[in-house]
Specification:
Largest sheet: none
Number of strands: 0
Distance between the termini: 29 Å
Number of domains: 2
Number of helices: 6
Order of helices and strands: HHHHHH
Strand content: under 5%
Radius of gyration: 24 Å
Helix content: 55-70%
Length: about 120
């Protein structure tokens, strides 16, 4: 991670800790603190829970990428699409028909198109 991005995340974590401290030391009231900082109480309690569980690392930003993608296209199918594109120059509709007829793979034309687009083909 670049240093500037790291500094940005550090500042955001420090702000979150300041919000938690403000509620604890200054107002003693979560609702007033949330209203003052313009955040929801759910978000406040999420930060508080993560701070209690993980300490100083808790309020840091986290990746929002999913841990797994159950609906992702299998790598074998993607490899077959790449092979068909590179060797036969098929378009998405032709690939869909070919995969269905000769491999028994049922995939939408739009999915084939998205895979080609993502791979720059």
């Amino acid at each position: 991670m670049p240093p500037s991005q790291q500094q940005h995340q550090d500042r955001r974590a420090q702000r979150r800790l300041a919000v938690l401290r403000h509620a604890e030391e200054v107002t003693g009231n979560v609702s007033l603190t949330c209203r003052y900082y313009g955040i929801s109480r759910n978000r406040f309690y999420r930060w508080q829970r993560r701070y209690q569980e993980e300490g100083i690392e808790g309020p840091r930003d986290r990746s929002s990428t999913p841990h797994h993608s159950p609906n992702a296209t299998d790598a074998d199918v993607v490899n077959e699409i790449v092979y068909l594109r590179q060797n036969y120059h098929f378009g998405p509709m032709t690939m869909q028909m070919y995969l269905k007829r000769y491999h028994g793979i049922d995939i939408a034309c739009s999915a084939v198109y998205r895979i080609l687009k993502r791979l720059g083909l």
